Amino acid sequence: MGGGSLKANSGVAARSARIWRQSAGGIGGAALSVEPGRGASERSTQENLPRPAAPITGWANTESSVSTTLTVWQNFASACTITIAVAAYPQIGIALSPPAMTVSLSPSSMNMSTGDTTRYVTTTVLPSTVSFTPTYASGLTGDPNSSCDASIGFSGNGGTGTVNSTVSAGPAGCGGVFGVLAYVGAVRGSPSLQVIVPPQVMIATEHGEAGGQTGTGDASMPALLLVAENRFGDPTFGSYATWQAVLVPSQFYGASDGTTDGIQPELDYAAGVFAGTSAVSLPPGAECYWSPTTAQWNSIATAYSSGATTEPSSDGAPGCWTGANLPAGDMRQIVVKTSVANNARGGSYQGAPAFVFLQLATTGSSAVIEVP
Amino acid sequence: MPKEVINPMRHQRAAIIFFLGPLALCASAQTAAAERDQLRASAQAKVANLSLVLRPPATAAPGVAPSPQQREQAMSQIHSEIDAYIAQTVDPAHLDLNSLNQDLAAILRPHSVRAEYGDPPTAFGTDIAGTRFLLVAYVLYAGLHGSGGTSVAIRAYRAADGRFELADSTGDDMDGCELFVRELHAPLPNEAWLLAWGAVTGSSGPGAYIVRVYAFDGAKFRTIWRPDLLPGVTASVTLDGFNIRRVDLSRSLPPGWEYTEDHYVLEPGGPLLAFSSPDPH
Question: Given a cut of 50, is residue A176 above it in pLDDT?
Fold first, then answer.
């Protein structure tokens, strides 16, 4: 903080004033003093603040008033009381009126990839004439099912009025959910910021498996991540517990996609599933999926409308629970999720949903069920 | 010249041999068939029991899962059962692959899958440097998905002393996959080449496939071709090589998969990509 200004006016009773102080940013001792003008004297604060590097000058002296500008060279560690008495004229008091500084931070939430280099937060300080360098306190509030914790950092640039601070996250591929507070001096910005950094493999898998399904309201991308999430802890899928362990090319070929940054809408969908805030849901047993062709979809739709209890042949379903991998007493059941849009390619996929899902059900159940 | 004395008993014996000989042979064949049926039934029962380790019955206590060691041991024992069955029942001089394939399918019934996921157990016969060999391919399902989800068997048996004995196998190279196998036109004399491919169990979307070309030289298998995982594969054999149809990610906007067919020709050093062509569908 380059310094705020305080105005000392005569003609009021001597009193104390609260002024701002900043705790972060390596701020040293606060300094405030008044260079006595005519008849004025100085008295240090209760904290015995050191003298300023430069005197206050320019007292204006008229018949009716005396005034000057007090410049705060340093920031204050906490609110403190300053009493200034004018010895020669005890009836004259000086009121120090610190400006009402407000610090705001936007946005209140942000999703980002460890590969992003252009994401920033905006800190705005009023009065806009104040020169400042915001500092940020961040903490990991969650790291759900990521094999490694990311950390985030902010650029240290300053300015007046509004400052954009670039946010970075790393190491590449790690994840985390962070709470961030902005400070200007001792003033805490409002609101706090939530930063969600999903593991990059979630973004890459969405792009590699469903990159063409970008329509508004299409649940394709989050749904396929929920399939992977459903595998957490399932011993028949390896009992894995992290996104990095589950989303591997041998199980989700799209995980080999080379996307390294936070492309949209993949980033936002991945962040929602990672942080558990996604509104999209999937039955917990749906652990496989595929994209049926039109012909395959027709056989699925027929089985659904007829209430069949046997999976249609040649429906294109992947090799999940095949052979002796199918638990005794169970059958495979196709789950059609109506919020998954049709395959955007058309052609041989015309009219078929981009994805249908597979789960286990007790033998004799419906071969196909529908969920919203 | 003394007249030949006709010994009526001799004629009787000849007649008996003449008439009963085929009957004896027939009886012998029947005995062999009965023995084979018995051996098959025995192997079938043993494999079914061992498979229960891999796939516990619905009545089993919930949450009781076999350990990895138990699975591995069960699958190893099933492989041994197959080896023993082949050694005991398959006559190298009278190789009937159809019967053998049917027997293997019956014995390995707990591990059968729909045709789109893999081939039934498949046997190939081949002669290498004057010796007869039997190549057998099948999959055991371990009740899991992905790595360790299956045990893929591609095993070679050498004819010796009127029976087939295990010579070599491809090991665990393709474990975790389903399996299709085709015999290739080997570009080297005295070798048998196989094209094998299959999706990794549990792989979603277009599926992740392992593809291999193996050569067997009468003693050992060697891996001729080991490409990276490929998405959405089907394959076919040609006169001079094979074709691989696969999802072409460079042209796809997922999940609108576009396919490309790669045409490979076989050279002694391995397959060479001759050309690729988009596969409209």
Answer: yes
Is the minimum CB–CB distance between A258 and chain B shorter than 8 Å? no
**Domain end point (choices A137, A172, A197):** A197
Number of domains in chain A: 3
CA distance B138 to B122: 7
Task: Please tell me whether residues A241 and A367 are part of one structural domain.
Answer: yes
Residue range(s) defining the domain that contains residue A355:
214-371
Give the pLDDT of residue B120.
Answer: 98
B69 CB burial (10 A radius; 0-12, 13-18, 19+)? exposed
In a domain, A202, yes or no: no
Chain A neighbors of B249, CB-CB under 8 A = 208
pLDDT(B68) > 80: yes
Q: What is the pLDDT averaged over residues B87-95?
A: 96
Q: Look at residue B85 and tell me whether its pLDDT is greater than 60.
A: yes
Q: What is the pLDDT of residues A179-198, one digit of tens each?
A: 999 999 999 999 999 999 99
| Phi-psi sector, A46: left (phi>0), alpha (psi -120 to 50), beta | alpha
Clarify whether residues A93 and A116 are in a common domain: no
Q: What is the pLDDT of residues A199-250, one digit of tens each?
A: 999 999 999 999 999 999 999 999 999 999 999 999 999 999 999 999 999 9
In terms of domains, do A240 and A311 share one? yes
Q: Does A354 touch chain B (CB under 8 A)?
A: yes
The nearest CA of chain B is from the CA of A315 a distance in Å of 10
Q: Distance between CA A205 and CA A254 in Å, rounded?
A: 5
Test A250 with B203 for CB contact under 8 angstroms: yes
Q: Chain A partners of B112 at a C-beta cutoff of 8 Å?
A: 323
Any idea which residue has 């010895």 for tokens?
A: A87
Picking from A21, A121, A30, the residue whose alpha carbon sits closest to that of residue A73 is A30
The answer to whether residues A54 and A165 belong to one domain is no
Identify whether residues A148 and A87 lie together within a single domain: no
Q: Are residues A67 and A106 in the same domain?
A: no
User: Average pLDDT of B179-205?
Assistant: 97
Contact criterion met (CB below 8 Å) for B88 and B39: yes
Residues A106 and A180 grouped into a single domain: yes
Distance CA A323, CA A330 (A): 12
Q: And the tokens for A365?
A: 């159940």
* pLDDT for position B14: 57
Q: Is the pLDDT of residue A4 over 90?
A: no
Spacing of C-alpha A123 from chain mean position: 15
Shortest distance, CA A168 to any CA of chain B (angstroms) = 29
What pLDDT is attached to residue A258?
A: 96
Q: How far is B89 from chain A (nearest CA, A)?
A: 26
User: What is the C-alpha R_g of chain B?
Assistant: 24
The DSSP 8-state label assigned to residue A26 in this structure reads: S
